[in-house]
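Narrative summary of target 7.
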Amino acid sequence: MQFSTSKCEILRVSRARTQIPFTYVLNGTPLTETDHARYLGTHISKDRKWNKHIDVITAKANRSVGFLKRNLKVSSSSLREKAYMGFVRPQLEYGSTIWDPRPGVENKGAYKVEMVQRRAARWTLKRYHNISSVTDMLENLGWRTLEQRRVDARLALPFKIYNGLIPVDARKYLRHPPRRSWHSHSYSFIPLSTSTSSHRLLFYPRTITQWNSLPQPFFENTNLTKFKQSVSSFNHSSVN
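Modeled conformation, tokenized:
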């Protein structure tokens, strides 16, 4: 059986300043090296940043907003809102549990994502005047920022793990402290020790910090829907 190597590439991800070059060969053909690769709908870059992925999804989402503007000629703002939530927003949130931009490092990328929603809010309410406040529009629509929604999604994952709703063994990361402190609750996890910002902003260290900041009543019901409702009403602080 012959394998095609035309779609095979090498993506090197390393923190080392000096890397040992190595040529990978598949089926007698040397593989080319790339700076980023698409995997399961997510663009992974060698520098471990999400700028490439954000550029791709915001460009696609902006095209989708333009498509709706050209083709959805309805006077109902509620229908336009449903079109945005069903057709555009899922493109901006697919896999966001993993690719959530890192504060301070990728603020421009996070801003680009929010700008898609802000343009959609103007279209939904048909308010294009330059003195119209988009922030007020978002409040009137009751739209949560996409940054806060990404935190909501990340917090739902350890809730599923903790309550046995998905078969993931995370005992190495989700461990309760032997004794409670005055500012913690009975569902708190031990924060993970990190030495670099790249490690601190990975999924488990970052999410555990925000999990511990939630009020204890959020965890006292094992119903996932109610947990999501509670979390979506909470203003999360960023982890820098």
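The chain has a mean pLDDT of 88.
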